[in-house]
Write a structure and sequence with these properties.
Layout lengths: L6 H6 L5 E9 L2 E11 L3 E2 L5 E7 L1 E6 L5 E4 L3 E4 L5 E16 L5 E2 L6
Antiparallel strand pairs: 1-2, 2-8, 3-9, 4-7, 4-8, 5-6, 5-8
């Protein structure tokens, strides 16, 4: 058995504007903790779905071909593999992300109009 963790206590120790790191592994997936304000690059994961679970703040997830999803504390959203998206936040946001341990991230420099 692994040690019990308090995710919000771990997040409270983060002082950087952007931090994203693995806190656990489940089978062939990892659970990542993200604490940030700002925006992440447009990207997609060609070989892995991605599950976001918001613990604090408000997470905006923009998509190439549909409306922005607005997630607040206790909301979750599954992003299917290959879906072009980016996450952003105007306030300090804490979220968990579950994805394949070896998930490839393909960054997109600029979205076509």
């Amino acid at each position: 058995m692994s040690e019990m963790q308090n995710v919000l206590a771990i997040a409270s120790e983060v002082k950087e504007k952007h931090a994203n790191f693995s806190i656990s592994e489940v089978n062939d997936h990892c659970v990542r903790l993200a604490v940030f304000t700002g925006e992440y690059d447009w990207h997609h994961h060609p070989d892995s779905d991605e599950l976001f679970i918001v613990l604090e703040g408000e997470l905006l997830i923009d998509f190439k071909n549909k409306e922005t999803a607005v997630l607040k504390a206790n909301d979750s959203l599954l992003i299917p593999k290959g879906t072009v998206h980016r996450s952003r936040s105007y306030v300090r946001t804490v979220n968990l992300c579950v994805e394949h341990i070896q998930a490839k991230t393909v960054t997109i420099e600029e979205l076509p109009c």
